[in-house]
Amino acid sequence: MKKLIVLAAALASIVSVSAKTFEGHVDFIMKAGRDSMNITYIMKDDRLRMEMSGKKGYSAIGLFDPKALEVKILMPQQKMYMSFPLDPAGAAAKAREVDIEETGETREIAGYTCRQFIFKDRKMVHEVWATDELGRFVPMADMQKTRGKAPAWARVLMDRELFPLLMITKDRKGREKTRMEAQKVSPGKVDAAVFEVPEGYQPFSIPGIGNMLKGLGR
């Protein structure tokens, strides 16, 4: 359970958006090694709800509130939730230098035309397919209202007002580490109530989870 929560929360720190330019749902499939899960991002204004479902019926929900610098993880089966702060100090970490290439290749993903970008840093290669039809991409570091810098590849997408619908991360030997691909994009009005903890949920904690997620948004 810890592994799934950490993986999904780390992903959200990269794939957060400003719903001033997009409001609605985006359904993704994320794969990391042998693990996979379905993820639905629900966005409105600067709020993000992330619904995760994995193998054996496991599910969890993440509620990200950048104004409050807080994340809540909900466990629907147990009707429990865990809260922890986003780390402004972590968001202030400097971005690594990367080599950037726009290949000129295009493809359609979830009904949107995407352009291919290759970003290389010292350890990893990020292949990103992004569209200009969904508005401006805003990494978590910017949403936290800090002076910190988002990863260089994420800032390029933000500056060009591109929204990523497929992201593949590989090591320098070409071995795929993670893949996240949009299956469906559904623009539309979102009820603000979905970003709140439902009545009847009780708080809980996992020892060490705060340290595991410290620096979310780097």
Could you walk me through the main structural features you see in this protein, from its secondary elements to its overall organization?
With 218 residues, the protein is α+β, with helices and mostly antiparallel strands. It has one domain (2-212): outer membrane lipoprotein receptor (LolB), chain A, CATH 2.50.20.10. Helix content is 15%, strand content 47%. The protein contains 5 helices and 12 strands. It has a 12-stranded mixed β-sheet with strand order 7-8-9-10-11-1-2-3-4-5-6-12. The longest helix is centred in the N-terminal third of the chain and has 13 residues, at 2-14. The protein is globular and about 50 Å long. It starts with a helix and ends in a 6-residue tail after the last helix.
The largest sheet has its strands arranged as 7-8-9-10-11-1-2-3-4-5-6-12
Radius of gyration (CA) equals: 17 Å
- What is the string of SSEs from the N terminus onward? HEEEEEEHEEEHHEEEH
The N- and C-terminal alpha carbons lie at a distance of 23 Å
Could you name the CATH topology?
outer membrane lipoprotein receptor (LolB), chain A
Assembly form of the protein? single chain
- Mean pLDDT score, rounded? 77
Number of helices: 5
Helical amount among residues, as a percent range? Answer: 10-25%
Structural class: alpha+beta
